[in-house]
Amino acid sequence: MSTANSSNHLQTPILDSESAQLLQAVSQHGGYAYVSMAARAAAGDLRAAEAAREMAWEQLHSGPWHSVLPVWRDAYSMACLHVAKVHAIAGEFSDALRALDMGLIMGGPLLKPDLHSLVTIVSAKARAARVSEKQQQCPKSDRRLVPDDLDSKELLGVLPTKSLSCKMVLKRSGLSLEGFLREYLLPGYPVIISDGMGHWPARTKWNDMDYLTRVAGDRTVPVEVGKNYLYPEWKQELITFSQFLERIKANGSSSAAPTYLAQHPLFDQVVGKKYIRLYLASLSEELYPYTETMLCNSSQVDLDNLDEKEFPKMRDLEFLDCILEEGDMLYIPPKWWHYVRSLTTSLSVSFWWSEYGSS
Amino acid sequence: MVKAAAGWAHCVAVTDIGGVYTWGWKECVPSGKLLGEQPMGANVEKDAIERQSSYLNEQVSPRSQGSQSTALPCLVTLNPGVRIATVAAGGRHTLALSDIGQVWGWGYGGEGQLGLGSRIRMVSSPHPVPCIEPSSYGKDRCAALPRGTMGSEGLGLRVPGNYVKGIACGGRHSAVITDAGAVLTFGWGLYGQCGQGSTDDELSPACVSSLLGIRIEGVAAGLWHTVCLSADGDVYAFGGNQFGQLGTGADQAETIPRLLDAPSLENTNAKIVSCGARHSTIITDDGKVFGWGWNKYGQLGLGDVIDRNIPAQVTIEGCVPKNVACGWWHTLLLAEPT
């Protein structure tokens, strides 16, 4: 079973010890074809490994999510490990990483440690391979993700009406943790902490395409394509981080189908600028939330094309807004409504947390 | 054996005297006694089994303990007098159509694919699927209504037809057609594969109202999609379309039946339809074969592994196609030499 990895350092101890039991469970659930493919995959047959992965993928999509049997998630990871090993042995590191990431994203918990350790090993091999390749290439000119600062006045033109004309979110520097807790977190009031991330290496490194590509270019990430998830053409895709970077660099901030990294109440602006508008949590009728339960935390109002006839209560609502610049951290209190718009290509990090014991 | 069908991990076959054998994944093979309403004499059951067994000159194979599959066919215990004419196998459920047009189902029913009105997880013996309400037998009112008044499904409209004449099982949904040409669907609906204009599961057989007025003669179902053929030879498809399996030329799912208007299908009438998990095939009355959808393993028979989202003609030289049957990831074509 482990002939394929004996000559390499692609060790998968959990796969090796759990395979037999996992395959028996798959067989119990009717996956005879998977089991026979997996046996050939373990012997290094790429086509069989891909077929096994395809069978497991199909099972993950063969019914409502709650009815998908957990064993098929682990079977999916197993097939991803087989596919990745064959690619890695052939020196196809990007393909191997793609397979491993898909296993991490869609697979079950059982083989996660093996997937993670192979990611580390294969990433190192890929970097080593790239370094020897790079030595023949000449350096590229501007590899910064966000070029020059844009004119703030020009930006105002693209924002919803009344932006930056009323109350702004207070920008505080040198705010102590105690001060943040007392003045903002406990009363539930938004604030921008402007010098809290000066020490983050990300502020310079994340604006360097080469750095981003080097450390994560071959990793697969879930992205959201489309203005936001309320639009019918909105979809989720899995692409490599390199593809994502190229896409956002090409798009700038004025694209028909913008792409976002999936995820999003500390909101840390690492690179670029974002406009953010906040409405009080207590306003809800005035913001016309969707009635369907899945979307009841989303407003039907499109601030970019505000229809005052349809949503009359919207016009005179008070709000707080701000432009989040590189290095700013914004605290959004629980349940505040927020509208976010990127003004430049921008990279942010969001932290979600909840008080211990609350839901 | 006169009919056979294969699902994801099980097979089912019909004998010429109306008996049913099934084998494969244990979950799909009925066990235990019939759950029928009417009490049954043990002798009757024994007689029925003996009659069939002796005819086949083969003993019923008891299912081996502990094994997850039955390698040998098991005889399905049916109510006395029930003779099955044809069968359909899905992802994990089975439908059987009797010679009097009644539908029986067993296996997994978690999304309503057995049409029993609930999310019953396991039905371990054949259960009648209520497709045509008893009160509507012989009335056939709906078929006489003009088409414009249709669409108010659920408002006391009766299903046109007196009996069921065709059945199909998809991954987790089912479709049947009545003698009057109406289509009923039930089961998993997330991709629109029930054709009801929604993505809800249908727990009981529900008439596909947008097809009322069109006489449907054939139906087939895949993992996420359904394809119907009309008496005029038109093709209607609905459900998931990630691999082009609807043949509409796009990749959007359709929650109501969509008429295929591909140029390749002009001036030709579809007669036979079959669906694999993610592909579809038809045979036309002038002997052409078309396939579309997922083709990663060459299941479209086009000599390549490129998916098609419109019907593509399969060239077969020197023979006349007679029948087509898709497996989960493959296709079988029955042909005669010219």
From TrEMBL, chain A:
GO biological process: methylation
Record bears the keyword Protein biosynthesis: no
Entry coiled-coil feature ranges: none
Keywords annotated in UniProt: Dioxygenase, Iron, Metal-binding, Methyltransferase, Nucleus, Oxidoreductase, Transferase
Pfam families: ARM_KDM8_N, Cupin_8
Cofactor: Fe(2+)
Segments forming domain JmjC: 210-359
GO cellular component terms given for this protein: nucleus
Location(s) in or outside the cell: Nucleus
MF annotations from Gene Ontology: dioxygenase activity; metal ion binding; methyltransferase activity
Stated family: Belongs to the JARID1 histone demethylase family.
Protein name from the UniProt record: Lysine-specific demethylase JMJ30
Gene source species: Prunus yedoensis var. nudiflora
TrEMBL record, chain B:
Family annotation (InterPro entries): RCC1-like_dom (IPR058923), RCC1/BLIP-II (IPR009091), Reg_chr_condens (IPR000408), Ub_ligase/GEF_domain (IPR051210)
RCC repeat residues: 18-100, 101-180, 181-232, 233-286, 287-337
Gene3D superfamilies the UniProt entry points to: Regulator of chromosome condensation 1/beta-lactamase-inhibitor protein II
Annotated ranges, domain RCC1-like: 2-332
Tree of life domain: Eukaryota
UniProt KW Electron transport keyword: no
Alphabetical UniProt keywords: Repeat
Name this polypeptide is given: RCC1-like domain-containing protein
Source organism of this protein record: Prunus yedoensis var. nudiflora
Source organism phylogeny: Eukaryota, Viridiplantae, Streptophyta, Embryophyta, Tracheophyta
